[in-house]
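Following the same procedure, sequence and fold were stored together, as reproduced here:

>
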Amino acid sequence: MIATSVSWASNAIIARGVHETVPPIGLAFWRWAATLPFFVAVAWPHMRRDWPILLRNWGWMLFLATLGIASYNTIIYFGLDQTTAINMVLINAVRPAVIVLLSFLIFRVTVARAQAVGLFFGFLGAVIILVRGDLAVLLGLQFNRGDLIVCIGTMVWATYTVYFPKRPNIHPASFMAYAVIIGLILMLPFYIWESVTVETVPFTAETVWAVLGLALFASIIGHMGYNRIVDLMGANAAGVTSYLVMAFGVLMAILFLGEEFHIYHAAGLALLVVGSYLATRKEAPKS
């Protein structure tokens, strides 16, 4: 969970840094295309063996690849073009609650008391950091179309998380290799459309490093790590990763971008740590 959170915190920084020069579909497409050789190399011994299982469960495979590979990050990158970072992170902070709600509505997964308290503390800590300890900032927030796009992305990822246990029973690397292949096939016509009618991905050193960074951290470490978290801890506890992403994002901004550390950072981070601990305790029910 820690490795995944650190990776996704860096993902937000990289994607935000190039959103003005790299179009959203192109960024998502090349991010996953760069990972394909790695996943195929790692999964090759398993892919042929897992092929019959995948064919029998092609519907679930297509469903999860559409949500987790082709849709989520593309939607988020579109949202970043039209909304502020603070609004985006605030909306994503609601993701754990959305996962819990969907788990209950779809699979009737209940929430232990400690987990509910942890989710509340985590959300409260996230809000404190985002509004810088000032209620007037929260009251003054304005939401736009970009925020709606981010909300859709949050729902897509929450749905992916809840349904991930339904994936075909194949090797994790094999699952990722097939998911990336399917996702790229689904994205290809949209990428071509964007390149022809909107904007092409510029081939510069900045773009190459951004794509490679997203591929390594967000796609390989982050995505495989998150899938493993859902396996080990269940969908509800996995959603707490969103809180840890924010915590590490704040620390990384302070360490690497020179941003100042304030008392509201300490209060928010303390609540995030306590909330994450409570929400991931072993006695919390698994989906």
